[in-house]
Design brief:
This protein has twelve helices and twelve strands. With 332 residues, the protein is of the alpha/beta class. Helix 3 crosses helix 4. The C terminus is likely disordered.
């Protein structure tokens, strides 16, 4: 479904949201919000509604095989993480190596950083993932949600990683503002979010009859592209350093490999993607791969957005609840 008319939604605690409806799934509408300047679902849940999902159920019901597959793919993940840490290390002096991973999951990003000599700490709402990180990998991981109360006891960091976090949150600007407060002066932020409603997905949906498989409420609330994510990050007191994407896995659908409801085929496609990247990285093609994914970012292609930013010296006050007038920008 693609809408063209504007609708006004009033969400208690979230302000007013107005914009064209771009999709409707399972009783939720996704709007291209004129106040927030990115796509998100309405109605928006409150944080309390999500707590049980992520604390107890996420890795047992939504991603029951994720930790097992994560370990199976560990060599590839370490190659991906090495590229990200190398960029952070080029931007910071050797004396600054304290990192917080928000939503640290099973912990391989933290473990890789620890093995490189970083002082690492994670915060993870899933009891299952936090326990795995602590018991199997020996990591310093706090089982909690990052909020103002938990942030107060964490101290300061030189870098913060948030992989696949902002799409889940009713108030992503407030999370970015917390990150700003937790970073040292000129500290670095690495964000990874899904790149949704990208040109490949739109073509597959509108021209080839694929359902909008990437729209997944109530777990995914926000739907970013390169421009909308960058604007949000800048609004929260950061200067963009680099934007790239991950492999455009949607290409396999255009090749006739319909993995959407076929987990086994999905793993096959993923293995091909891993082999492609590992061959490049192992043969000295890391710069080429980075340039390729930066070029994809300029076309808004690629399955995820990877964005690096630096904490600006001066930031605005904590952004108001989204939808408030303070979050508007002039219309184009």
């Amino acid at each position: 479904m693609t809408g063209t008319s504007s609708r006004l939604w009033l969400d208690a605690g979230h302000g007013a949201h107005q914009g064209p409806v771009v999709e409707a799934v399972d009783g939720y509408h996704v709007i291209d919000c004129e106040a927030c300047r990115f796509k998100h679902v309405v109605p928006l849940p409150v944080q309390g509604q999500l707590q049980d999902v992520y604390e107890q159920d996420y890795y047992s019901t939504e991603k029951p095989f994720y930790i097992e597959q994560y370990q199976t793919d560990r060599d590839w993940w370490n190659a991906v993480y090495a590229q990200r840490y190398e960029f952070l290390e080029r931007q910071l002096p050797p004396s600054r190596r304290r990192l917080l991973d928000v939503g640290s999951g099973p912990g391989l990003f933290l473990a890789h950083g620890r093995d490189r000599g970083w002082q690492t700490k994670g915060i993870e709402p899933s009891r299952q993932a936090a326990a795995y990180s602590q018991s199997q990998l020996g990591l310093d991981v706090l089982h909690a949600f990052l909020d103002r109360q938990t942030a107060s006891g964490l101290g300061k960091f030189d870098a913060i990683n948030m992989g696949e976090v902002l799409e889940h949150l009713p108030e992503p600007a407030q999370m970015l503002s917390l990150a700003h407060e937790l970073l040292e002066e000129d500290g670095l932020l690495c964000l990874i979010v899904p790149n949704d409603f990208n040109p490949f997905q739109t073509l597959l949906n509108r021209r080839l009859g694929f359902r909008p498989w990437w729209v997944a409420p109530p777990h995914h609330l926000n739907y970013f592209d390169q421009g909308s994510l960058a604007e949000l990050v800048e609004r929260c007191g950061f200067a963009i350093l680099r934007q790239e994407t991950t492999f455009p896995i949607d290409m396999f659908l255009l090749m006739g490999e319909n993995y959407i409801d076929d987990p086994q085929l999905g793993r096959t496609c993923h293995r091909r993607r891993m082999k492609f990247e590992q061959n490049l990285l192992e043969q000295g093609g890391g710069d080429l791969l980075g340039s390729l994914y930066q070029a994809f970012a300029r076309l808004n292609l690629g399955r995820e957005i990877v964005l690096f930013a630096r904490r600006s010296a001066h930031a605005d006050a904590l952004p108001p609840a989204r939808g408030d007038a303070g979050h508007r920008r002039p219309p184009p």
